[in-house]
Every structure is written in C-alpha cells, then in structure tokens.
Amino acid sequence: MIDRLSHPALIEAMETNTEEFVSLWGRALGATFYHEAGASWFITGGPFLRLNMGVQARLTPDTPAEKIDDMLSKIEAHNVPTSWPVGPSLQHPPIESRVKARGWSIFDTSGMARDLQDLDEHIAMPAGVTLERIDTTEALQLGVQTIAAGMPWSDAGRDYILDVVLKRGFIAHPSVRYYLARLNGQPVATSILYLASGVAGLYCVATVPSARGRGIGRAISHLPLLDARNMGYRVAILQATEKGERVYRRLGFEEICRIHFWQR
User: Fold this and answer.
1) Which element (helix H / strand E) includes 17?
2) Could you tell me the pLDDT band of residue 44, with boundaries at 50, 70 and 90?
3) What's the CA gap between 149 and 204, in Å, rounded?
4) From CA 157, how far away is CA 188, in angstroms rounded?
5) Is the pLDDT score of 50 beyond 90?
6) Which pLDDT value is given to residue 36?
7) What single string gives the DSSP state of each residue in 150-176?
8) How many Å apart are CA 110 and CA 255, to the nearest integer?
9) Which phi and psi (to 5°) does residue 256 adopt?
10) How many C-beta neighbours within 10 Å does residue 118 have?
C-alpha cells in the first residue's frame, strides 16, 4: 500500500494501476488481447480510440528502433483507431520519436496524486444534485451515456459500449466502483474508482456540458475518494487535462508526473 506522496514506488504504482485498469476495460469489452515481445494490447475492431488500446510495453532508451517499429507495426496492422496511456517509463526521446515518425500523435496530460488522510468528510453538494453508486445495468447504461456526452466520444463508440453493457449486464468487481451524479433527477456526471497496486485510481470523470461550472465534477470525484479512504487507501491518483487539472488542484491533488497518450 502506498502511504505517502513521497513514496519511491508511487510513479510505478500509478503506471501499474493504469495498466491494470486498461486491461480490465479490454476484458469487459470482450476484446482480443495480443502479447508480443514484452508488449500487450487489445483490439475490439470498433471505430473508436478507447475500443482498441495499448496496455504495456517493456521498452528502454536502448531498445533498438527495429524492435519498436516491429511492435508498432503489429498494432497498426489491425487498422483501427488506437490509444495508449503511457507513463514516465516509456517517455524517452528515442522511443517517442519512433512513435511520432510512424504517424502517431502524442497527447500530454498531468499525472496527479493526493494524500487522502486529510480529505474533508463533507462533500460540497451543489443545489439539486444527488450522488449514487452504480450497481444495476440500467444505471450503468445511464453512466455510459453520460460519459459519452461529457467526453469527446463518437456515437459509434458510445453505441458499441452500450451494446456490451446490454449483453453482459452489470457485473460487480471487487476493485471497481462506479458513480453517477444527477441534477434535478437527470444524469449529468460520472466517475469510476479502480483500486489496485496500492493506490486508488480515479477515472472517467465527466460532466455533460450543460451542467458544468456548478461544482458537480468536484462532488462526483469527492465521493469515490472518501470510499477509497474508508477501504484503507491512503493515496489517490488520476490523469488530468489542463482544464481538469484546475478542478483537481482544488480537491488537493498535485502533479507527480506527466502522462502521455499515444494515439493513431
């Protein structure tokens, strides 16, 4: 268990939490997994970045360019949009220059963490807002629709995931918690908590455009953090865009590293 932000294994725990969450996401989608030369990724074949993702790779600055090219060629051969969250262990110029040379783009985000020990028990609740923990198929469908509306998800991506939910239904997992916020009864924000590698990972925080600027995103982030602390976790982690970073700093998060997303 990571017990402080100065813990020497924090960044490794952040990377591993993300890898495990992405792997679980692929399994939930029923994707096909591939394992080649120290790398793994999953493919559903769907026309959306989050339906085909890299999971992990064991590359170093000394890895021959030919090996990097071979790995990327195998992924590119699927000929579908692909994304890959990458922590500091892969953020080396020789690696990322090869990635860019093959036509991938690199999107930069903030890897943030917070010590949960002094987290306020009181959640600032905007007027008309209620928070709930998702535990039914119907609520999970609403959650997917809300994430899609709050993030730049394609209609094809949303429909693919909704179809998976419809076929599989809600399946409880001991490491995952899903959350939904409603404004005057209407679903407007979501978050997901993933507990692994000694840290509590906060993912898929999204608020629909019409409900932004009211503090709802902060509230739907605060509840899972309290749950994580109550389950014995001391450190929470997340990835934030420049816009989201301001919200999370107000919740007590600070930047620990940069997280890149390789996309093609």
Assistant:
1) helix 10-28
2) very high
3) 12
4) 19
5) yes
6) 85
7) HTT--HHHHHHHHHHHHHH-----TTE
8) 6
9) -110, -35
10) 8
